[in-house]
Amino acid sequence: MSQTLLVLNLLSLLSLSSGATSFSQGSRSILRAIDNEKGGPHDYAVDLNATNFDAVLRDTPATYAVVEFFAHWCPACRNYKPQYEKVARLFNGPDAVHPGIILMTRVDCASKINTKLCDKFSIGQYPMLFWGAPSKFVSGGWEPKQEKSEIRVIDDGRTADRLLNWINKQTGSSFGLDDEKFENEHLSSNVSDPAQIARAVYDVEEAMSTAFDIILEHKMIKSETRASLIQFLQLLVAHHPSMRCRKGSAEVLVNFDEMFPSDLLSNSEQEDNGGKGTRGNFQICGKDVPRGYWMFCRGSKNDTRGFSCGLWVLLHSLSVRIEDGESQFAFTAICEFVHNFFICEECRQHFYEMCSSVASPFKKTHEFALWLWSAHNKVNERLVKDEALLGTGDPKFPKMIWPPKQLCPSCHLSNNHGNNGFDWDREEVFRFLAKYYGKMLVSLHEEKNNHGNDRPDGALEDLVVSTNAVVVPLGAALAIAVASCAFGALACYWRSQQKSRKPRRNWN
């Protein structure tokens, strides 16, 4: 079967499974990959239409958005496209130089589906560019004589240089067309700004998706690791800070035996398993995750922070969300997950030794949360020496004993050498952990996205569609609602079962 036919079959399956009325960005990226193999241009700007315009701009983590309205038949628009793409490649896609800052998009007004959308923005010439906060475009519009509009026309963007200069003036930045990935001075530190933890919601999704990609790529689901993965999935179903990751984990858990039959777990049999357990069937946090970039966990240079940071944030978040009766189960699930599925051998062994040194079971949430906090500091203490010796650390985010005084002054009793070189008020540390990785991690994210609308806790991620989503038909929406209720019931049932269990004496 030809590559194109395979892709078309895949797109058909995606369309049927999502109720989509147009291709998702993921589908477009597949087609662009084929284009690139044939020598075609690479598109960095995100194509929007009337179907997905509001959803994409509502859910983007970017601070600003640029929307280009054009017509595909317009010669000036075709000539301008390479200029626009030069700027878009800095901000969009998995290889973006400055990710998560500006979402560069385009709308084709020559397409009939977009006629009303283009009319809302009074498009009278092509191309026409607008600038604003992404939320202001949602259900919004623009009028030429409007005095106080939060959406602005970009009046000097005829070339890539001029467009980028205009953007730099608005943001107080010095972005350059020749900027290379991670080599810039615009990276903001998250050490002294607690509000930045809101951005980590995107990173725990990214880390979870990346972890399961690694598990599948390295064929790590075997008879001896199967039970530990199920345990970890159970923990995620109940306590992952992202609702879409909870739903995805529940779906995988419900279908685990079908996706990973116990009699088909050898490497060769996994390869011949008709596609079961592949990325297409194992989208733990939704079809557009991983996005290919980090927000809170972004390093200042290649190969620093990223996945390991996102995974630590996830583990800390789980540790403060569990209830007292679940503390030993969470300890067991996390220790065994790291032991069986984290492929950095030195890190895995170090974590396993710390797990094995625990003499008695945890009975309270704060006991486990503080143990994980102490373990993380021990890891940082080990790595800071290695990185100093080898020069491999991130200069803008050096390893440190955490939390620093800037984030939690009350956590520090003195500078005397105690646990990890400090004397800690452990009760204050736990209060900080519970607030930082619990309430702040999600509530600030919700506040950022709610834009003043009152919604009950947890409703945001039900309503927010992923960055590349399209409108879902009513029948599909009802089916999703029913499935969500089933997953919620499963989580509640599992949690009630865990509360009735006696704590285990050992985790291994």
TrEMBL record:
Its main location: secreted. It is found in: Secreted. Residues 1-19 form the signal peptide. Residues 14-172 form the Thioredoxin domain. It comes from the Eukaryota. Keywords: Disulfide bond, FAD, Flavoprotein, Glycoprotein, Membrane, Oxidoreductase, Redox-active center, Secreted, Signal, Transmembrane, Transmembrane helix. Residues 300-402 form the ERV/ALR sulfhydryl oxidase domain. It is an enzyme of class 1 (oxidoreductase). One of its GO terms (biological process) is protein folding. Its EC number is 1.8.3.2. GO terms for cellular component: extracellular space; Golgi membrane. The chain crosses the membrane at residues 470-494. GO terms for molecular function: flavin-dependent sulfhydryl oxidase activity; protein disulfide isomerase activity. Pfam families: Evr1_Alr (PF04777), Thioredoxin (PF00085). Coiled coil: none annotated. This is thiol oxidase. It comes from Carya illinoinensis. The lineage of its organism: Eukaryota, Viridiplantae, Streptophyta, Embryophyta, Tracheophyta.
